[in-house]
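Re: duplicated header lines in exported structure tokens

Our pipeline writes sequence and tokens for each protein into one text file. With two proteins the header for the second block appears twice in some exports. Here is an export where it did not happen, for reference. First protein block:
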Amino acid sequence: MAERIKDEDKAKVTKSDLVDAIYTETSIEKKTVQKVLDEFFNQVKISLTSGNNIELRGFGMFEVKLRKGRENARNPRTGEKVSVPPHYTAVFRVGKELKESLLDLDIDNK
């Protein structure tokens, strides 16, 4: 049976939480885990800003996509007409194994 997660049980996982979890599972020093995680994120940033995609098999893919600009857009807060130039953005596509593991998750969206 799928695990049921209620809204009040959902929480953000921070980088510090990831460091603690990796430390607990591997017993590698926290400082070392922190350095590796920081460098991983730095390399992801460098790769994406260079226009490269990052493929992590079974997990997913970080891609750089060009968003088309719009001449007649609206600021949703003020309703003011604005022009949005074309720009790049980073997107994440879920890999097959992660997607399949998420299918078994039952989230209560009340």
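Second protein block, exported in the same file:
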Amino acid sequence: MKYVTSFFSTLFVVSTGLYLLPHSVADAVTLGNGMLAQPAVGIAFAEPPRLVSASTPYSNTSVPNTTYYFTLEVPVTAGEPLQQVTFNQIEGTEDIEFNQKDTFAFEGTRNHQGSKLALKAVKGNNKQQTIKVTFDTPIPPGKTVTIGLQTYRNPFYDGVYLFGVKAFPSGEQTAGQFLGIGRLQFYAPMTTEN
């Protein structure tokens, strides 16, 4: 009798768990990488922002005090405002150092700049090659914004430099979503031979 009671107790627990499983998966949000974000884990975008472009007006190596522009589009269907963006250098011959205090942001694109946006914080980690930009006021869905990362100089070495871009919605516990890779190409200046 003891074994029969134990069997039915186990069967009840398993069947209850199986019954609840589809309900918790149905409430989840699918992230851009295919993983599910449970509401208990944190807030996530219904549709993440899109990395529109990455560019710099000076693509020669060693140019001092340059800016790298990253333009993001927050879709109308995002479901949440954009609060924070992180950049992580994932490829390049040398590590690029950013001048955090001169980082800025504005509505629009590099060629069609709108109003300036206040930043709450800009924090970098040179060891991990990351920089985190937090907006003072979250960016509502339907807006296009550009973040200007100021560098002390372009790299000494030419080649392709790649930056992973991740966005976080507003809130206490948020699920960041990878937006893509910003690609910058740097060229050694042409020299003339005598």
